[in-house]
């Protein structure tokens, strides 16, 4: 089957015309392509600087600056930092200090407490260290408070509170060649030293603002979803936003966050305007309580097995069973059915496989679009809510109440036809020349992804011979396996830095943590002072990343703009997916495992 095959039988069998859909996807993408790409967003400062303040702590916190030394400093107290610290502890590394900007552990789940906040990935594979903590989540999909509590429980279990520095932002890191230590400075006046540093700053940690004309002039109440203003809205993360009674509310953005909070806004606001540029793909949520009989049947090692099973399926692999069996794995199940329908004994070329993958994707998205028709009464609103792009061009969403919210008389979808909000005035939001007057504007506009690593981290890293990481990465990231960069010894990056991207992000963080713990404990046990990626190993890995990225480039180019494809400019800047290992997470995790098993720590220099 080739791209242009469109036999009548195929159309009849499928119930849609692949060529027509392809053309429609292209037209929808073209509407949204814009020259300014990432530049359409601005930093949260000036009038909006308070958008990144911590609303969950008492003001006035202070403590004595620290000038001591620890073996390992871990920057970031979200899942990545917690996992790294936990795996280090398990590997016998005791002297570990976490530094965290927030007032507690939890990372993204510490900051994001908007009404309805919930994780789209099944809780049994998303919440880390379940077996280690002897905990089983209450439901198939956990709500934010349970995830935040679990983060705290990890901190308790691994004794990470004692040395942790909360409400502390790293302001700089400098390698000292004399003491062979990292010097870490913070906004609390600390000048501490560490032999190893592990950075888990989070991939989506800095809220971003759209540079919409007039945004500064709005005189009503305004906030970003990542710091929900309950003092204004009333209620809590379960809803009941009594402060919105009699209020006209506007929300800009229709991504995963908006999908979860819109149903609560719809219930409480007198009038809700949802300003949409691109509709999300909204599949069935289907949450349910944890089955106690199933829980009792679980055997040791079940969580890792389940995580691997999910990861294989969502990375395009085939397994006999689908343990998670939800919207994420559904598209792959679809693909397998189509792939298996080939005549006996015939094998498929890569091109044929790609074409079948595309067909399966069309089918899945047709199902998503027909779900909109089933749930939304007004045909024009329903049409505007239908996503026309391939499923993994944007983060797929799952919700049972979002679409029906548009049937309420107090909720209006303001579709901007892919152009975005035109301008903002003192009184409201303008689309197509019409001003929608509102009392409160909520920005569900997401987080910085395409900006530089240092800008998102909030600090500069100065390595050997005074070289800064910004300079070294000015033309793109350079790492060995995504962890280390030549010139920056004993320093490890976590997250989406040239590793294997997976839908279940904590899975990647766990594999990275195990690997970092292996390297650090090796360094400490063998009294190695410097462990640094060699230039050759780094060059080779960067080449591998570039060569393999070619596989996903045409897919990303054809996608509607978003942070997955650097806002329509894949290959330039730091798109979330394009700069990752193109062989997929299953192969990437195997590379790491094989490297550890081989045992000679190839690619690292020791002093
Ligand atoms: P996103 O970046 O996904 O969404 C931002 C939204 O703002 C998009 O709909 C975007 O439109 C819209 N937007 C931006 N500028 C304008 C404009 N000028 N006019 C109109 N609309 C505009 O942010 P989210 O906070 O929703 O989600 C971020 C990520 O956080 C998710 O992708 C997901 O990875 C994670 N998340 C995970 C959850 C989970 O279940 N685990 C829950 C919530 C979030 P456009 O699409 O056209 O760019």
Description:
The protein is α/β, with parallel strands linked by helices and 607 residues long. Among the domains are: 69-206 and 449-606, FAD/NAD(P)-binding domain, CATH 3.50.50.60; 207-280 and 394-443, 3-Layer(bba) Sandwich (FAD/NAD(P)-binding domain). It contains 19 helices and 21 strands. Strands 2, 3, 4, 5, 6, 18 and 19 form a 7-stranded mixed beta sheet that branches. Strands 8-17-9-10-13 form a 5-stranded parallel beta sheet, covered by helices on one side. A hairpin with a 4-residue loop joins strand 4 and strand 5 (181-186). The longest helix is centred in the middle third of the chain and has 26 residues, at 350-375. The termini are far apart. Bound molecules: NADPH dihydro-nicotinamide-adenine-dinucleotide phosphate (NDP). Residues 32, 118-121, 204, 210, 212, 252-258, 260, 275, 277-278, 395, 416, 420-421, 444-447, 562-563 line the site of NADPH dihydro-nicotinamide-adenine-dinucleotide phosphate (NDP).
């Amino acid at each position: 089957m080739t791209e242009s095959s469109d036999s009548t039988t195929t159309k009849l069998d499928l119930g849609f015309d692949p060529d027509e859909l392809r053309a429609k996807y292209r037209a929808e993408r073209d509407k949204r392509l814009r020259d300014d790409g990432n530049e359409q967003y601005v930093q949260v400062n000036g009038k909006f600087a308070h958008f990144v303040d911590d609303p969950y702590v008492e003001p006035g916190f202070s403590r004595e600056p620290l000038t001591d030394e620890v073996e390992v400093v871990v920057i970031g107290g979200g899942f990545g930092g917690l996992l790294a610290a936990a795996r280090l502890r398990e590997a016998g590394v005791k002297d570990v200090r976490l530094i965290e900007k927030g007032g507690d552990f939890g990372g993204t789940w510490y900051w994001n407490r908007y009404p309805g906040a919930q994780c789209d990935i099944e809780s049994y594979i998303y919440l880390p260290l379940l077996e280690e903590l002897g905990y089983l989540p209450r439901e198939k999909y956990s709500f934010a408070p349970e995830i935040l509590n679990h983060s705290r429980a990890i901190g308790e279990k691994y004794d990470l509170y004692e040395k942790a520095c909360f409400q502390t932002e790293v302001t700089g890191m400098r390698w000292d060649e004399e003491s062979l230590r990292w010097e870490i400075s913070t906004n609390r006046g600390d000048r501490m030293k560490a032999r190893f540093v592990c950075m888990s700053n989070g991939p989506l940690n800095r809220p971003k603002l759209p540079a919409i004309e007039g945004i500064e002039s709005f005189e009503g109440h305004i906030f970003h979803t990542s710091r929900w203003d309950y003092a204004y809205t009333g209620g809590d993360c379960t809803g009941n936003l009594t402060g919105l009674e009699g209020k006209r509310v506007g929300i800009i953005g229709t991504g995963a966050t908006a999908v979860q909070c819109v149903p609560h806004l719809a219930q409480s606001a007198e009038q809700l305007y949802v300003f949409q540029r691109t509709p999300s793909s909204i599949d069935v949520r289907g949450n349910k309580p944890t089955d106690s009989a199933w829980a009792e049947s679980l055997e040791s090692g079940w969580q890792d097995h389940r995580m691997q099973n999910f990861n294989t399926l969502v990375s395009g692999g085939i397994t006999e069973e689908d343990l998670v069996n939800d919207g994420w794995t559904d598209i792959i199940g679809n693909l397998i059915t189509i792939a298996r329908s080939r005549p006996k004994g015939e094998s498929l070329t890569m091109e044929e496989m790609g074409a079948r993958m595309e067909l399966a994707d069309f089918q899945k998205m047709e199902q998503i679009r027909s779900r909109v028709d089933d749930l939304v009464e007004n045909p024009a609103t329903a049409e505007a809510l239908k996503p026309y792009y391939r499923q993994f061009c944007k983060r797929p969403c799952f919700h049972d109440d979002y679409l029906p919210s548009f049937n309420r008389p107090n909720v209006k979808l303001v579709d901007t036809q892919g152009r975005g909000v035109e301008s903002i005035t003192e009184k409201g939001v303008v689309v197509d020349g019409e001003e929608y007057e509102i009392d409160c504007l909520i920005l569900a506009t997401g987080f910085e992804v395409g900006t530089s690593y240092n800008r998102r981290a909030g600090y500069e890293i100065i390595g050997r011979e005074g070289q800064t990481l910004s300079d070294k990465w000015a033309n793109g990231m350079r790492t060995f396996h995504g962890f280390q960069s030549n010139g920056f010894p004993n320093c490890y990056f976590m997250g989406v830095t040239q590793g294997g991207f997976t839908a279940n992000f904590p899975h990647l963080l766990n594999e990275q943590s195990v690997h970092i713990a292996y390297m650090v404990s090796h360094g400490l046990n063998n009294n190695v002072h410097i462990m640094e990626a060699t230039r050759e190993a780094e060059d080779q890995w960067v080449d591998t990343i570039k060569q393999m990225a070619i596989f996903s480039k045409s897919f990303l180019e054809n996608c509607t703009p978003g942070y997955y494809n650097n806002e329509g400019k894949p290959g330039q800047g730091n798109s979330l997916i394009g700069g990752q290992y193109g062989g997929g997470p299953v192969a990437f995790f195997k590379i790491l495992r094989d490297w550890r098993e081989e045992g000679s720590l190839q690619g690292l220099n020791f002093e």
